[in-house]
Design brief:
By secondary structure, the chain is mainly α. The protein has helices spanning 7-68, 75-100, 103-133, 140-156, 160-179, 182-201, 205-314, 329-422. The termini are far apart.
Amino acid sequence: MRVNFSIKFKLTLVVCVSILVFTIQGSVAFQILQQMNATGDMVSAAQRVQAAVLQTELGVLGLLEQRTKLSAPRVADYRASITLVRDTRIQELEASVIDLNDPQLNSVAAALTTSVTNYLQELETWVEQQNMLGWGDGSGLMGELGNSALTLEAGLKGFSALERDLRRMRAAEQDFRINGDAEDADRVRMHAEDLEFNLKDLSFNEEYGPALSSYLLAFERMAKNIEAFLATEKGLADRIPELLDVGKQADTLLTQEILPAVYRSADTMGNTARSTILASALVGGIILVILLYWIGRGILKGLRTTTDLMKAVSGGDLTVRHTLSSNDEIGQLGHSANSMVNRLRDLVSESSEISDELASMSEQLSGATGRLLEGKHRIGRQMQGVAAASEQMNATSIEVADRTEDVNRAAQKTSSASAESVM
């Protein structure tokens, strides 16, 4: 069974196919946009991680630089800087790493966070130890030790042998402060024993012995703390390369692995999306071309057949028929054209019959016209007789009028004569 579709249905089908193609392309474009947004988010997250790593490293290096210039009045600000790095920079690093959700990066970031946290803890320990030792302004254990030494210097001034022993002891003390070497500490004790021996030899032990004992006691207390202080300083110095190395690992992982992988993924998605759009456009275009060819071919064929029919009808051929049997608008046009031709043929047939009737009536009218002309001639002759009689009657009327006028004049004369006779 042959199925014929209307032109409206065919055009609706074209519109639906076009909408479907545009919908597919729009959906793909939307997916591309979402993927690009996701890629942009990942790139932004990676950049935030890079910035957080850099800020953390800069914060640590800044603390390192400030430590070399630290003094007692700046201790509170320095501790605030330590708190800022610990509570702000590390939190920013941890939060930015969560967005990327990369296991390897999480591991490196955790190592960096641990390294920075340990460094900051040791730095706080170093600050406490430095507070205990003093900041070179007469405070702490070094200040106490310095005050004891000043007391000895003031008392032993002028005694060259005692001053020499005291200078040697202070020089060894200075070396011990710098190096923390046990040999330097032993040298301090050795020179203190020499000084004590000379004090006893000069009978100054009772007078300056307590000051020397106070110095040695302060030195021993300082020696215990300075060994821990120097160990902390060494630990801080050892942690800096480790911290920087972990930061470099994080940066290398971001720039050489994570970001390139994100860009490759974006390129792959872009290529897939472009291929999908081109394929949908190609398939949709082919379908649309086929549909339009199918619709145009049907319309042109129907119009051509209808045009040929109209030309034949205009030439007087009323036997032609529209041969298309489709049920679409063109088929309906053909059916209407056939009905028109049938109607025209019926009208022509009716016109022939009417013409025959008119010819018969014309013959009858010709006979009636002859009789009417003969009657007209008789009437004309009668009218001529009537006219002659009318002329005769007109002459008689004129004559009667003249005689009447004569009678009137005679009557007037008679009336005048009667009047004169009476008078």
